Amino acid sequence: MRILRLLIEDAVSNPRFAICNQQSNMKPFILIIEDDPDIAESIRYNLERDGSFVAQVALTGEAGLNIALGKGQSKQTGQMGQTGQIGQIGQIGQIGRTGELHSSTPDLIVLDLNLPGMSGFELCRRFRTEEETRRTPIIM
């Protein structure tokens, strides 16, 4: 977990994110796409516990793609919010588990390779073809 956190801190320290987040007072938004709820919750908890990041979990590749592209969410997507419920979408951004406002496009994606349905490699290729996520760092 410590290595993952160091990789994430390094990725979001990119000047592109520092400028964007300083201007808007938003914390970096990390999207975690992991089909094991226990692992996903552990990663989310460790990223949010000191207040440096806002993290959101998607339990399927399709749910992660919808969240990253801002195409809305429903209970069928498999996205896990506080107590397993869906986060709210606002005009400016999304409300994370801690109630913090974050941008609707993730600043970084933590991606599992072995997902049901759409594989992590397929999802990564899809993120690279979409304008909104083309330059988003992905940790697989």
Question: Can you give keywords for this protein?
Answer:
140 residues, alpha/beta, 5-stranded mixed beta sheet, 7 strands, globular
Q: Would you spell out the secondary-structure blueprint of this structure?
A:
Elements: H1 2-12, H2 15-24, E1 29-33, H3 37-48, E2 54-58, H4 61-68, E3 79-80, E4 93-95, E5 101-103, E6 108-111, H5 120-129, E7 138-139
Parallel strand pairs: 1-2, 1-6, 6-7
Antiparallel strand pairs: 2-3, 4-5
Helix pairs in contact: 4-5
Structural commentary:
The protein is α/β, with parallel strands linked by helices. 36% of the residues lie in helices and 17% in strands. The chain contains five helices and seven strands; from the N terminus they run ααβαβαββββαβ. The protein has helices at 2-12, 15-24, 37-48, 61-68, 120-129, and strands spanning 29-33, 54-58, 79-80, 93-95, 101-103, 108-111, 138-139. Strands 3-2-1-6-7 form a five-stranded mixed sheet, with helices on both faces. Strands 4-5 form a two-stranded antiparallel sheet. Strand 6, helix 5 and strand 7 form a beta-alpha-beta unit. Helix 4 (61-68) packs parallel to helix 5. The protein is globular.
